[in-house]
Amino acid sequence: MAGFRSLARQVRDPGCDLALRRYxxxxxxxxxxxxxxxxxxxHLCARAGFGPEDRSPDPARLVAALEELEEARSVWxxxxxxxxERRRREKHDGLRRPGSVDDxxxxxxxxxxxxxCDNPRVHPSAPLAEVLRRLIAxxxxxxxxxxxxxxxxxxxxxxGLDHEPSxxxxxxxxxxxxxxxxxxxxxxxxxxxxxxxxxx
Length: 200
What we know:
This protein has 200 residues and is mainly alpha-helical. It has helices at residues 4-12, 18-28, 37-48, 59-92, 100-107, 128-139, 185-193; strands at residues 155-158, 168-171.
């Protein structure tokens, strides 16, 4: 099975059939899709300026979508490298029990569904790399009361998500499933109760 870099080469290759180039970009999302496959595809299409069902998009637009995906992937891979090094140091120092960020990270290894969007049409509009930088920054600071991606405080608890975990706080503005480790206990409680959190 082709890896991400091999598929990316096919997307860029002007000697490849346009249908194969589009297909290869879609296959890249099996390797790395921060919002999930369908929402990430919808996001890339919107940002690059071609329709999700467009069977013969402008090759330059396909490459633009790929470049956005590659930049985001490099941000995430750098985070995973740092995460692995930190866990190795912690284990060396005798800290064997992982924390809540580690539990969340285990479910998102490789970058699939890092900022899960259950509705493929509702996702952040910022570039993928910027979204991941914001999310990573939130994971590295004290828990807060709002969405780490868009800053909105309108979080609602949703059940039956097509993801693991299958329930959690979803931002009503940008549509991401907000990782529990970035939220305070008070913010999680308000999301569960369906109440807006009013900053004190």
